[in-house]
Amino acid sequence: MQRQVVKFGYNFLLIFLPLLVLFSITEYKARRLPNTYARKKANFERIHDSVEVLILGSSHALKGIDPDYFSLRGFNFSNSSQTLFYDTRLCLKYLNEMPRLKIVIVELNYISFQFELSGSPEGWRDYFYYHYFGIRYPALDLFTPAGLTYSALYTKGLLKDLFLGIVNDRKEFGDVQANGWEKTHAPDDSLTISDKTGLERVRLHNAIISPANQVRTEQYLGEMIRKLIPRSVRVLFVSAPVYKTYAKFLNPSTERQNRAIIDRLCSKYGVAYYDFTRDTGYARGDFYDNDHLNAKGAEKFSRRLDKIIIASP
Q1: On the chain, which terminus has fewer CB atoms closer than 10 Å, C or N?
Q2: According to the model, what pLDDT value does residue 9 have?
């Protein structure tokens, strides 16, 4: 009997030890991947005590607002599909570590008030905020592979490339600069910006939003603003430019609902709102796709923001 137990243990180790070693190596490498969350955390924590302007928002801000063109030192803490829950939690998490903070810019777009990651096709992003910032969305289930390991955050294809040492950081995670802004260029394909792809984009957004999220998202903003007011920090709402191939298909009812919430918050807390959604000062060549600026457009937009709300408040 003892001999059988020893034999079983030996066979078990023979089968599972290599798998354990493989998993350990992959997990170690996954934890060191420079994704946008890891980069932003590291870059922000190097300069947080000197940040005067904090930018929050989704990919529209991530690609469209470059703090290098500001008169004050800024950091872009926005990210792809970042929701108002994470915007406000990131700001509040680091608030005591930003003694020079003067302005918080919150980028608001078509889906901001009605979108949460949880339950959406991009719900996997919730786990990145949990692992890298310790911020947990209330409904997030931690007893899942993604909640327990870093390896489960990535696709099998990327993990394979990671194990082989052939991951292209910039290609996989974008060209994120030290100030948090992601540099993008004009599209190579002329069809990227068109009525067809613009309509498809709006339909995608309409499919992932729900009016049921509006109360919570408004509360998130209100909570953050109430904690910034005693510190004499100005909060500004900004909607970035989108191209006409996207703007023309937006649902007027959703836009009215968004504006009602914005007006209510502005009135209650004395916040200013700057809406550049349909600004005609931006041409096709300023865009990366139907609703995101490229590097050229970002420079133009960032300089304008500085002139209007930072250099001359």
Answers
A1: N
A2: 47
**Angle at Cα 73 formed by Cα 268 and Cα 106, nearest 5°?**
30
- Provide the pLDDT confidence category of residue 251 given band limits of 50, 70 and 90: very high
| Closest among 1, 271, 224, 238 to 106, alpha carbons compared | 238
Segment holding 30, helix H or strand E:
helix 2-31
Q: What is the 3-state secondary structure (H, E, C) of 219-278?
A: HHHHHHHHHHHHHCCEEEEEECCCCHHHHCCCCHHHHHHHHHHHHHHHHHHCCEEEECCC
Q: Are 217 and 111 in contact (CB under 8 A)?
A: no
pLDDT in tens, 116-132: 999 899 999 999 999 99
pLDDT value of residue 259: 97
Q: What is the mean pLDDT of residues 152-174?
A: 72
| Residue 197 φ/ψ, nearest 5 degrees | -75, -30
**Interatomic CA distance for residues 228 and 185, integer angstroms:** 35
CB distance 59 to 78 below 8 Å:
yes
CATH code for the structural domain at 34-140+172-310 = 3.40.50.1110
Please say whether the beta carbons of 246 and 202 come within 8 A.
yes
